[in-house]
Amino acid sequence: MKSGIFFWIMRLAVAVILVQTLYFKFTASEESVYIFSALGIEPYGRIGTGIAELITAVLILIPRTSLFGAIMGCGIMVGAIFAHLFVLGIEVKNDGGTLFILALITFLCCITLVFKDRTKVMNLLN
């Protein structure tokens, strides 16, 4: 029972982090435009990433689809982490590394959720 609550908290954490960033992506906030311009994919990358994150947040909250949401979240966050490490830097526009830390937290939650359902993942691959 306690582990069930723990995994729900992880799923909620991922969903909250992803959903709270959507406002900035969909309203073309200065920071979001800067990030995706630096990556050379503004505006389509910003909007596409926002849509992918919204789908991920919904999938991760539905028990039947949470594994797919966690896998999607891992992929999106690997992209975000690599963008920080190789293009943007840890700190973006004096955010103190907040976006990088949120990407790490989201990735760690998602990879933990995938690992929890590793037998389902293996069944998908067979």
TrEMBL record:
Q: What is the lineage of its organism?
A: Bacteria, Pseudomonadati, Bacteroidota, Flavobacteriia, Flavobacteriales
Q: In which domain of life is the source organism classified? A: Bacteria
Task: Note whether Transmembrane occurs among the keywords.
Answer: yes
Would you tell me the protein name for this molecule?
DoxX family protein
- Species whose genome carries this gene: Flavobacterium psychrolimnae
- One short Pfam name that applies is DoxX_2
Its keywords, alphabetically, are: Membrane, Transmembrane, Transmembrane helix
Where in or outside the cell it occurs: the entry states: Membrane
What is one term from the GO cellular component aspect held by the record?
Answer: membrane
- Annotated transmembrane regions: 5-24, 44-62, 67-90, 96-115
Q: What membrane topology does the annotation report for this chain?
A: Multi-pass membrane protein
